[in-house]
Fold these 2 entries.
Entry 1:
Amino acid sequence: MELPPKLDQIVRLFGTAPRDVKLQALLDYSRRLPPLPPGLADSDRFERVVECQSPLFLQVDLDPDGTVHLYFDAPPEAPTTRGFAGILAEGLAGADAQEILDLPDDFYTDLGLEDVVSPLRMRGMGAMVVRIKRQLRAQL
C-alpha cells in the first residue's frame, strides 16, 4: 500500500511504537489539530461524521491546482476523535486529490491502535476517510 509520504511516516511510527507511546502520540495529535481559519467556522459545508462517538465535523476544499485542504472541528474534550483528525490533517497536508483518492480506506489499521482504542472509535476514523473521499469526488 502506498501512502502520501507524511502519512506513511506517521503510520510507520505508530505501527512500531509500544502501546503507551501510541496513546501519548494520539493525544499529541489531538492537541496539534489546527484551529479553523477565521470565517470557516460558520461554513455550511461541514459534514458531521456520525460514526464518531464524539461530535466531529469535516470539510474538504480542493484548489484549482489539485491541492486538497482538510478542515476538522471537534471539541477539546474528545481527544481520541481529535487525535484521528490530527493524524489525517498532518498526514495529508499538501497531498493532491489523486493521492487521497488512492488512499486505502482501511490504512488506519496499520497504526496499530486497536490495543489503545475501541473498535467503535476505530470505525470513526474509517468513516472520516470515506467522507473525505466522497467530498473530494464531488468537487472533481
Entry 2:
Amino acid sequence: MDKRKVFLWSLYDFANSIPNVVFFLYFSQWLVIEHGVSDFWYNMIFFGSSVLLLFSTPIAGILADHINVRKPFIFWSSIVQIFALGIAAVIAMFAESSSAVLYSAIAYLIGIYAYQFSLVFYDALLPDIAPPEKQGFASGIGQFANWFGQVIGIFAVVAFASGAWVLFGTPGRTQTLLPSVILMLIFALPLMLWYREKTVRRPKTIKLTREYRGIIARFKELIKIPGVGRYLLAFFLFNDALLTSANNFPIYLEQVFHVSDLFKSLLLVGILLTSALGGGLGGWIADKVGLKKTLLFILGCWISIFPILAATTNIIWFSVFVIIMGFLYGATWAVCRAVMAALVPNEQLNHAFSYYALAERFSTFMSPLSWGIIVTVFAYAGAVRYQLAMLVLTIFIVVGYLIVRKIPIVR
C-alpha cells in the first residue's frame, strides 16, 4: 500500500467533507426554515444533481477508461465544485429576494453535482493506492478522513454561526458557508497538484456520439459481471434511504425536537466521531470477515435502528441512538466502496464507478420524493409526519438487504 498516495487520497476526502457538512447543516435550514422553501423542493435539489449525473458520468467513465487516467477529471470537477459553492455562499450572504434564494440553490445544485462527479474517479483510484487485500482498509481510512473532516468543519464555523464573527453580508447561518469552501480549496490542493497515477496515458481517438450510443451496450456488459447488477440495484435502494435521512437530519431535529443550532452541531459531532471510528473499523473487519458478510450485518442493523429513531420522542434517547448509528454510517460507505472495487475488473473500474456514483446520487430521488410527499400530505399531523417519513425509509433498506444476499461472496 502506497502510504503517500493513501494520505493524499484521504486528505481529498477530508477536504470535500468540510463544505458538505456545513452546507448540509446550515444551508438546508437557511432554505427551509428561514426562507420557507418546502421540504419537497429542498429534496429536489438532490434530484436535479442526479439528472445531471445521469447524462454525464457514464460517458465520462468511458472516456477515462479510454485514456486510462482519473486525475484530470477529479481536478476539473473540484474546480467547478469550489466555484459553484463559493457563488452559492456569497449570494446567500446577501440574499433578500426570492430570486436570490433561487440562484443560490441552483449554484448549490451545481456544486453537489460536481462533487458527486469527482467521486466517480476518486473511488476508482482505490486500486491505484492499495492492493486488493488492503483495499477495505484503505477505503476505511478515506472514510475516517471524511468523517474527521466533517467534525473539523463544524468546529471551524461555530463562531460564524453564532454571530461572533461576520465576514460581510447578513449575520447568521450563511456566514458559515464561504469559510468552508476556502478550507476545502486549501486541503484539496495537495491531491489536485501532487498526486501521480501509476497508469500511463493512452490517448485514443473516440467519437462521443458513438460512445453515447454504446452506453447501453456497455452497461449490459457491466451487469453481466457476476453480482454487479444486483449490487448496483441494492446500493441504489438502501443508499437512497441513508442519504435522504442524512440530508433532512437538521430539518428533522428542528421540526420534531425544536433544538438549537448549537445542540444540532454538538450532536452531529458525536455522530461524526463514531462514524470516523466506524469507517476505519468497518474496513478492517470487512478484510478479516468478508465484504458480503460485513455489509449484510450493517444493513441488518440499519433495518433495526430506523424504526427506533422514528418511534423515539425523547431527545436524550434520540441522541444516544443516533450517536450509536454513527458507527453504521462510517462502516457502510467504507465497505460499499470496497465491494464495488472487488466485484469489477480493474480495466472497467472507471466505467463501473460511474454507475456506482449514479446509483448513489440518482437514488436521491425515490426516498426524497417519498419524504417530500409524506411531509406535505400529512402537514396537518405536525412533527409526526417527519417520524412517519423516517419509518417509511426502512422499506428501501429491507429490499436492498434481500438483494445483497443474492450477490456472490466477495473475497
